[in-house]
UniProtKB/TrEMBL annotation:
InterPro entries: LysR_HTH_N, LysR_subst-bd, WH-like_DNA-bd_sf, WH_DNA-bd_sf. Residues 5-62 form the HTH lysR-type domain. It comes from Exilibacterium tricleocarpae. It comes from the Bacteria. GO terms for cellular component: protein-DNA complex. It holds the Pfam family LysR_substrate. The keyword Kinase does not apply. Belongs to the LysR transcriptional regulatory family. This is Hydrogen peroxide-inducible genes activator.
């Protein structure tokens, strides 16, 4: 008598394919390494096929293992959607919600948003993952996250988006800097300046340059940073100037510094904040409710 693979076995296989390490995969699945290894060995026995190549240095998937893993991911995602459909029928914005948020939004929006959600929807359990846009969209499409809060546009296949609000950029410079002399700053004044930016991979960097229609070749970029907090300290110490999203300024990121901000003279120097979810998700109406809830508190 043959037995069908279990969902646990498929989950273990996908975890090994992602981490390429049995110990790390077991930790991600919240089981012991021996339990995970036994589950995969049972799966290989049931399928009468080798799915993983093992040696002392690395873990590799066989071609069949890669194919089985791809199908397993679709099965696991379908099961997640099935469970989500049941949760939607119980009550809107209840059960669990896995929310991905980019680092240039999370600390400035989440504290108030989560407090509001807790008061209005006490049955909703929100689990947060804070990462850059590309890892978040990958996790969304793999079924690891339900919905993202990020800056749009960002390329991803098979998704729906809901624009929420605009977040203007402002110039931030040390007190007394020539660019703070006027009440607003023309974009042209930034050309050739020492503009501090986040490192490659942060969509805030790309959106800021796009909004200002600036080419990195037109700028002197003395340093790149991994966070807005680091950039603020660099500006405060006279290393250069930067562009900050208004939401960060409103959240007091400049508190305790002598940095001044100025709006730009031109219109539409902004980034667009919105939600993103899989187009196949049965919870789309619920995500739109979440979007409306976020906009109501803006």
């Amino acid at each position: 008598m043959s037995y069908l693979p279990s969902l646990k076995q498929l989950k273990y296989l996908c975890a090994v394919a992602e981490h390429r390490h049995f110990g790390h995969a077991a930790k991600a699945c919240h089981v012991s390494q021996s339990t995970l290894s036994a589950g995969i060995q049972e799966l290989e026995s049931q399928l009468s096929a080798g799915l993983i190549e093992r040696n002392n240095k690395q873990v590799m998937m066989t071609p069949l293992g890669e194919d089985i893993c791809s199908q397993a991911q679709r099965i696991l995602l379908a099961v997640d959607d099935l469970m989500a459909s049941c949760e939607v029928r119980s009550a809107p914005l209840s059960g669990s919600l896995r929310l991905g948020v980019i680092p240039t939004i999370a600390p400035y929006i989440l504290p108030k948003l989560l407090n509001r959600l807790r008061r209005s929807y006490p049955r909703l359990r929100v689990f947060i993952r804070e990462e850059m846009s590309r890892p978040l969209t990958d996790a969304l499409q793999n079924g690891e996250l339900d919905v993202l809060l990020l800056a749009l546009p960002f390329p991803a296949n098979g998704v729906e988006v809901m624009p929420l609000f605009d977040d203007p950029f402002v110039l931030a410079a040390p007190r007394g800097h020539p660019l703070t002399a006027a009440s607003s700053v023309p974009i042209e004044a930034l050309r050739g300046s020492e503009l501090l930016l986040l490192e490659d991979g942060h969509c805030l960097r790309d959106h800021a340059l796009d909004a200002c229609k600036l080419n990195p070749r037109d700028l002197r970029v003395p340093y790149q940073a991994t966070s807005l907090t680091t950039i603020v300290q660099m500006v405060a110490n006279g290393i250069g100037i930067t562009l900050l999203p208004q939401m960060a300024v409103d959240a007091k990121i400049l508190h305790g510094t002598r940095i001044q901000t100025r709006p730009f003279a031109e219109q539409e120097i902004t980034r667009h904040i919105g939600l993103m979810w899989r187009g196949t998700s049965p919870r789309q109406a619920e995500y739109r409710m979440l979007g409306d809830f976020i906009k109501a508190g803006d």
